[in-house]
Design goal:
- The structure is a homotrimer of 296-residue chains.
- Helices cover 44% and strands 18% of the residues of chain A.
- Chain A is an alpha/beta fold and 296 residues long.
- Chain A has two domains: 6-95, Rossmann fold (3-Layer(aba) Sandwich); 103-259, Rossmann fold.
- Chain A has a seven-stranded mixed sheet, with helices on both faces.
- Chain A is elongated, with a radius of gyration of 19 Å.
- Chain A starts with 5 loop residues before the first strand and ends with a helix.
- Chain A binds chain C through residues 3-4, 6, 8, 30-31, 33-35, 37-38, 42, 46, 49-50, 52-54, 58, 62, and chain C through 14-23, 25-26, 31-32, 34, 264.
Chain lengths: 296, 296, 296
């Protein structure tokens, strides 16, 4: 009998996410075990513990998933886990805190597709502004876009401090520069929009980031994408299922559920890779982006 | 391959109940995931999280179970969960805190059967006194009986205060009146028994509620049912497996394990409904009562 | 359809051990449910809860596993669980805190095999010193050896106090005497080695217990066994996979991974017994020792 696929699901929060449990089981894991309130310093022991109890062939059918609500912490845990692995007992690792890595991958991939097909442009060199950049989706979207060669501005609603620290963290970890910007006032939000070609809206649920007036003022805006599915939506005029629909301002809108569909497929697909791969995987938002591209 | 049946088991307590885990797995759930120390305000997010990650057809094979030790809190959680559901992503919900809803359903259904078959009477209009009414089983039994049209008195061992609040809560939530009564002294316990036709004993394990003398004094008592399986049992003279056995006083006794057998079948059956239903279910003690009736 | 095998995994620690989860699933359990931060006084309720929800035939396919990091507490929990069981609803119990019971069983069984085959001796009457005796592996190894009739000395690195209490606890629980000894200074460690024939090293990972000089001084030493797989290893000159390899001093070395292989087989085998036995089991380090013997 083949070894069962076992997923150890580590969350930094009080509860494991039922969303991720369902996804993992539907993707082929036979068993999912939750570990909650996990701290970074506990990761090494948990990973080694998970690794050494199965023969190398079965170790491949063992996965560790990192949940929570903090992109940087999830990446740190992924790094700690990777360091803890010892050949040939390697197991697969996947981080997707709050579903943000797969959501970000899906959003940027969708933007790339619309940009390429309808505007004949690439992400490389595109001027991208990320609203809600201090959140988990915003963080990951900014890094993915920057790694593709876009000129990325990350906007902080609470002023410059947090996004400045974040830009430094991103440069240190990924070797790419992003520009922090103050978006605490609505005129700053609009001024930033006017200077960019693509707006990625990753604000909190139920918060409108860009109004029709903002969009009308942004003459060079090509695309506005939004991941907020709770009314009011993040970009006025962009509907949930829009896949590059032209707005009155001429920019093309991509809606939250259009992105959400790709996000589901991406998360499901990455879990599926864990249960079928013949070598150990280490999956973060970059792999989510790569898979989302192939799904579009 | 058919979607696996996944049960997210939420408890307000520190530990999930192994009893309920076993029941759920034996009823056909493939996967059971515990969530502990869950609070009411966490329910909406957990339910939506569980709901949105599967296609509507698979969502049907997704269940949420509410455990704990508080009937009112479990009902509040069930309400919060139901409000959180969005068509067509509906999932099934089942509350059975401390096994009390299925125990209460089984007890009242058993009483009804004996009452009908041996006394030619119905629950409607029957005078029922519930001892241990502030507990989870007592609460649910009182509501079930009142909804069937019985005249129900709920007895508090710690005086009138808690049962008075409880009667108000029951009227507000279910639109039925029950009468609170002070049972803090043994003569009150007996006086209440004398005035009623049916006694439902849902006191703590190992506590005798009614003595042979109490029973002898209760000339109009038709049935005494008990859910306490730990000696001393709740009603003197009623044995664990009694299914309407006549006591010296003439009343008919129903014992804890006779009720327990129906309770097992009821809880198992409700879990089974969750794994097989073609529409989403919302199950509480009323559904337990309906199923228990059909099992008797 | 046969009843599924369900394992309720109780840990006294914050997290269940992924190692044990993997082992249990690979041994045939269909479902594993973690319960964490479990205290001794919660065991009775959890065990009875697990026991009463399945028919006796299915109860046999229900197991409770005791994890954590404390041998005495695990034994107390096992005792509490055994007392809570009621015929015919018996379920199987297995304690292996920190993997220590199976590790200890494997180490002592390996020592016995080498002692018998290469030295023509038995454990009975052998003079055994246990280093790291206050740890979980050391505790269990000392008891197993003493129950086999060895003359066992348990060495405390922090002085005599803890090992003295431990010797009293062992005599009270198992009816065997072991001798406590102070090993807080390196000359004491060596002096104790010189007086014994077998050294069981169960110190912390990465701590060398015995140097080549210690071994050279120990003229009557027959065997030195070590369970520390993290360099520096516990016994200088004994390699990870050594299975009775002669050291310069003439003693035979048994290494941590040689013992580890038997430990894996032992833990897997005990879980397998739980999923296949036709009577309820209660498994501790004595059963681990018995199984490890049969695997060598």
């Amino acid at each position: 009998m083949a070894a069962k696929s076992i997923l150890h699901m580590l969350s930094t929060l009080k509860h494991m996410s039922p969303f991720d449990v369902n996804m993992a089981i539907d993707a082929g894991f036979d068993v999912a075990i939750p570990y909650t309130n996990v701290t970074l310093d506990e990761v090494t022991a948990l990973v080694q513990d998970a690794m050494f109890s199965r023969a190398p062939s079965a170790a491949l059918r063992t996965g560790i998933f990192f949940a929570g609500r903090d992109a940087v912490l999830a990446l740190d845990m992924l790094d700690a886990a990777e360091k803890a692995l010892l050949k040939p007992f390697e197991i697969s690792l996947f981080a997707d805190p709050y579903g943000s890595f797969t959501t970000a991958g899906a959003m940027v991939a969708f933007v790339e597709k619309v940009l390429r097909e309808k505007k004949g442009r690439e992400l490389k060199g595109a001027k991208i502004v990320v609203y809600g950049a201090t959140g988990v989706v915003g963080y990951s979207s900014a890094v993915i876009a920057a790694l593709e060669g876009a000129e990325v501005t990350i906007v902080g609603y609470s002023g410059l401090d947090r996004v400045t620290v974040q830009a430094e963290e991103i440069e240190k970890r990924f070797g790419v520069k992003v520009t922090p910007a103050d978006g605490s006032k609505s005129e700053q939000v609009r001024a930033l929009l006017v200077e960019h070609e693509i707006a990625l809206c990753a604000a909190r649920a139920g918060v409108q980031v860009l109004s029709a007036e903002d969009l009308a003022a942004a003459k060079s805006l090509l695309i506005a994408a939004d991941v907020n599915a709770v009314p009011p939506l993040g970009v006025e005029g962009v509907k949930l299922h829009d896949k590059g629909v032209e707005l009155p301002s001429g920019a093309l809108g991509i809606g939250a559920l259009a992105i959400g569909d790709i996000k589901y497929g991406t998360e499901a697909g990455l879990f599926k890779q864990m249960t079928t791969s013949d070598k150990p995987l280490r999956l973060d938002f970059r792999h989510a982006f790569a898979l989302a591209r192939s799904l579009l």
